[in-house]
Design a protein that fits this description.
six-stranded parallel beta sheet, 8 strands, single chain
């Protein structure tokens, strides 16, 4: 078996972030604000500093409580951890505490709105082409408990043998255990590569457990393998197998 381990957000799919490419989380915060407090003059740039800390993936060395069901109490607890982050952001741009907390509780439904999620144009054809060439696809991503619904809405579920979501496992990349769970599930895998858009989480995380990695879409000067678009993966993988 030849295994390709794929990141999701920023690699296979993305959430709309508006005119300013400042990130999906700040976009969701702003969407809530515009829907429920349109009189507030706030920009994504102003919200951005408040989303740089406080998420589970900012503490990858910690094993977090896994979420078994995206619609159950564990998922509610996962999101409850983030409400202080969202409330702090709203308070930081001038909202009173009561209003900040009220809006923070609306971010979840806005963020997971399936209409906001898209897949990159090169994803479906390249997944099919690589599968035809003998590669098995697995997803390994730091994401929200509702990831399965997002992946399903993008018609990607059937493309993957397994999906390893940090919300479900409790391990955030680049924690080595996140990658080890994949390798343990596929002991028969020979060639195995990680593909993702984060140099820290995907490339360095994979290399720490002995896996080669290809950085995609977001260049980094220290990345050994980089592909601007997914078709460029073909040559990298072919050279790596020689």
């Amino acid at each position: 078996m030849r295994l390709l381990i794929w990141d999701f957000d920023g690699t296979l799919g993305y959430r709309e972030s508006g005119a300013w490419a400042g990130g999906a989380w700040t976009a969701a915060l702003l969407e809530v604000l515009e829907a429920h407090a349109p009189e507030r003059d706030v920009t994504q740039e102003a919200l951005c500093p408040y989303t740089r800390t406080g998420f589970r993936w900012h503490r990858p060395a910690t094993h977090h409580a896994p979420v078994a069901d995206a619609s159950g109490g564990q998922a509610d607890a996962w999101w409850a951890e983030l409400e202080p982050v969202f409330a702090r952001a709203y308070a930081g741009v001038g909202l009173p505490d009561a209003e900040a907390w009220a809006l923070a509780r609306r971010v979840r439904s806005t963020y997971v709105d399936l209409r906001r999620w898209h897949r990159y144009d090169d994803v479906a054809p390249m997944l099919a082409r690589l599968a035809a060439a003998g590669w098995t696809h697995v997803m390994l991503t730091n994401h929200v408990p509702e990831l399965s619904a997002i992946v399903g809405a993008l018609s990607l579920t059937d493309r993957f043998a397994r999906i390893f979501n940090s919300a479900r496992t409790g391990y955030e990349k680049p924690n080595p255990r996140a990658f080890e769970l994949v390798l343990e599930a596929f002991p028969e895998a020979g060639a195995c590569w990680m593909v993702g858009d984060s140099y820290q989480a995907d490339v360095l995380g994979a290399q720490a457990v002995g896996l080669p990695a290809v950085l995609v879409r977001r260049p980094h000067p220290e990345a050994r393998h980089y592909a601007e678009t997914l078709p460029a993966l073909l040559a990298i993988l072919a050279n790596g197998e020689r």
